[in-house]
Amino acid sequence: MKIANKTITATKLVKEALEKAKKYEKYNVFTFINEKEALKKAAEIDAKIARGEKVGRLAGVPYALKDNFLSPEGQTTASAHILQGFTSPVTATSVEKLEKEGAIMIGRTNLDAFAHGSSTENSYFGPTHNAVDFERVPGGSSGGSAAAVALDIVEFATGTDTGGSIRQPASFNGVYGLKPTYGCISRYGVVAMASSLDCIGFFTKTPEDMDLLMSIASGQDPKDMTTLPDYYNNSKTSKAKRIGVIKDFDNEAVAPEIRKVLKEKCKELEEKGYEIVELEMPTLKYALAVYYIIQPAEVTSNLSRYDGIRYGFRSEKAKNLDDIYDDTRNEGFMPENKRRIMIGNFVLSSGFYDAYFLKAAKARTLIVKEYEEAFKKCDFILTPVSPNYAFKLGEKVNDPVAMYLEDLMSVSLNLAGVPGLAIPVGKTKDGLPLGLQLVGPRRSDKALIEFAKELN
Ligand code: GLN
Description:
By secondary structure, this protein is an alpha/beta fold. The protein contains 14 helices and 11 strands. It has a domain at 10-234: Amidase signature (AS) domain (Amidase signature (AS) enzymes). An 11-stranded mixed β-sheet has the order 1-3-2-4-6-5-10-11-9-7-8, with helices on both faces. β7, α7 and β8 form a beta-alpha-beta unit. α4 (143-150) runs parallel beside α5 (167-173). The longest helix has 24 residues, at 354-377. The two termini are 18 Å apart.
């Protein structure tokens, strides 16, 4: 990535990024453009460079921030009506770390409201368009971030991944997208979706950039008790030898061009001397059902704080306290948010708790164990990211189950806490990006990024 130095100024880098953001306005990538503040920060970095002072590893690098990361620059809306007008008094730990190294946020990116979705069509601001084909979705929920990198507006963008929201849009737009090991990067200051699944990660154009960002953003944070002690920067990457493929994922539900590219890549790896191991992972077929029980259960709890009193929007209609809660939530949430609140309450309600939530929690343990067993037989697993490449805008909006099925191959990683990297590996015959997902055991993030270079 281009970093400011004596020959390229931060101001030039930021100005270029802002111009491109304006040029691609019709793609609806951003919910907010941070022009004034970004230019001010760029001038400060340039002045430091001119004085010969030390600058950070990301000096003057323009980046895009998914609009569910808290920082006082612009409103943090999570693309939801209910957060309109909310300016955060705090800054996310990950944002603080990036900015300390000199990265400059030029805009906040569009997402499915509260990150609920796989196409960025559930946004209060309207859908983002795919960077390669304007008629298609960019994937979701981090569709704006993926498009911002793929359109070359910024050098990198942040994302959140609860069930695929970094990996799927990365593959739909032809960029790299990493969901790290659960607990690798602090979740402090990020709008919570489902706390036991949420991960912070990045979109980049190269594995090298991903490595740099991970070395900056990872590490333990006293403000997030689930963060792991920093292992990323101490990782030893021994060379992988055995690559697993999951037998069950080679079926009719997966687009033929995705199955084809997966087979081609396996062949290439074999030619390079890797052993391809066929894996039976029979519990993975329950992962989607398990995810769509555990995730809404946690969503319903996390969304209960939006009551019209504390954050952002409040309904004008309301005449008393009860109505403030009801009307604000009714008008402020998107239909998909409400669907998840209802499912979450259902699976947690007495009478159904044992049959749904408890059973899903037990099945989750089996999925964790199945990955542990799989990684005794291979070093990494190579799978599709999702069953499809970028689909048409509007194609699945009225069919929630079809939309949920998009997450078939991504959610099990969040349930197991293991890292997954979406890698651009080619194009369909119509020129649409194709990606594959590389999965590793917990804490193998650095090795995954290193191995990604073998696949191009
Ligand atoms: N598409 C998945 C969902 O709708 C994942 C979303 C995410 O990772 N934030 O839940």
